[in-house]
Specification:
By secondary structure, this protein is α+β, with helices and mostly antiparallel strands. The chain has a single domain, classed as Aminopeptidase. 22% of the residues lie in helices and 41% in strands. It is globular. The protein binds coenzyme A. Coenzyme A (COA) binds next to strand 5, helix 2, strand 8, helix 3 and helix 4.
């Protein structure tokens, strides 16, 4: 199944289900390696997001001069192209069809350090953020009712 970024470029998505509880979407541009993932597990009526990310560690194409001087290719990022939003739509759509009531996930201190606007990104997509009470790796929890306007 295809998804498109904000500029209209097409990406291939593979969906894998393990039993009735685990579901994962991997995004390709269009062939290996994968460039994005959303992995969820269902627990009762909650669909929990365990991993949702777009890669920023893959080498892009080398220019002629970079190749000539043996320079490493600059890295490309697949973040901020609208693909995280598309993955979230797949998660929400699956939660709707499988009659889940909520979608949730944990956000760690490391996630926020790497992406300071992560909580706002989830809030923009209808999630509420509850900060963790204990001091530790967990920064908080995000949750969203499934039956809500996108
Ligand atoms: C968080 C993440 C999944 C969002 O996916 P994405 O494809 O980058 O986000 P989208 O392109 O769909 O949405 C981006 C929009 O959100 C808002 N935004 C603002 N700051 C942002 C930021 N630091 N990161 C992501 N979105 C941001 C903007 O409106 C932005 O649109 P703009 O680029 O036109 O300004 C992705 O950035 C990512 O993989 N980050 C690293 C891993 C991570 O933190 N995963 C979540 C763990 S719970």
């Amino acid at each position: 199944m295809p998804i498109w970024d904000k500029e209209g470029n097409e990406y291939r998505v593979e969906c894998t289900m393990t039993g009735e509880k685990l579901i994962e979407w991997r995004v390709f541009d269009p062939g290996p390696p994968w460039i994005g993932v959303a992995a969820c597990a269902r627990k009762a009526s909650d669909l929990r997001i365990h991993d949702l990310r777009l890669r920023d560690d893959l080498p892009g194409p080398r220019t002629f001069l970079q190749g000539l001087f043996g320079r490493p290719a600059p890295r490309v990022t697949y973040q901020r192209r609208g693909l995280g939003t598309e993955l979230l739509k797949l998660v929400i759509g699956y939660a709707e069809t499988s009659r889940c009531e909520t979608i949730s996930g944990d956000i760690t201190v490391e996630d926020i350090a790497a992406n300071p606007r992560l909580v706002q990104w989830y809030q923009h997509h209808g999630f509420a953020f509850s900060p963790a009470h204990a001091v530790g790796r967990l920064a908080g929890n995000i949750t969203r009712p499934v039956d809500q306007q996108r």
